[in-house]
Amino acid sequence: MADCVQVTTTLPDEQSAERIAVCLVEERLAACAQVLGPVSSTYRWQGEVERAWEWYCHLKTSTARLPELQRRLRELHPYEVPEIIAVPIVQGDADYLRWIGETVTTSPLPPEPGTGNAGAPGAREKHGRNNTQDGTVDSH
Question: Which of 3, 32, 49, 71 is 20 to 30 A distant from 118 in Cα terms?
């Protein structure tokens, strides 16, 4: 089983979160990203209690790629002190965790014996649904 982590960061708007998500997946630093929001945040900054609407970006990567993902996320992030929290994935579907590990490497790993095709899951296989061209979801 691959050593994987979920990295969470918050951003000031949906566009920033989507931009960072796409960039990190394209650069193979993250296997996938989910953008959620808005969420209400309350925090202390420079001696004052602040409130803001923010967007979460959750990223899945391997522990081996984590330092590079953190470095790149700091470069891309608009905040002076960005939230970058990595939590180990201690349990998960073995095929999914393997897919994360394979996806963030520069060259794909060979399939494990007895696992068949260990390629990246498609939307249908991964989520049990098929996104249609018009944006609707065809569940099966």
Answer: 71
Q: Which residues contact 57 (CB under 8 A, 6 or more apart)?
A: 8, 9, 10, 11, 17, 20, 21, 33, 34, 35
Cα torsion 104, 109, 111, 117 to 10°: value is: 50
Distance from C-alpha of 32 to C-alpha of 9, rounded to nearest angstrom: 14
Rounded Cα distance, 91 and 61, in Å: 14
Convert the pLDDT of each residue in 1-15 to its tens digit: 569 999 999 999 999
Q: Write a three-state SS string for 48-86.
A: EEEEEEEEEEEEEEECCCHHHHHHHHHHHCCCCCCCCEE
Question: Per the domain annotation, does 119 fall within a domain?
Answer: no
| Number of structural domains found in the chain | 1
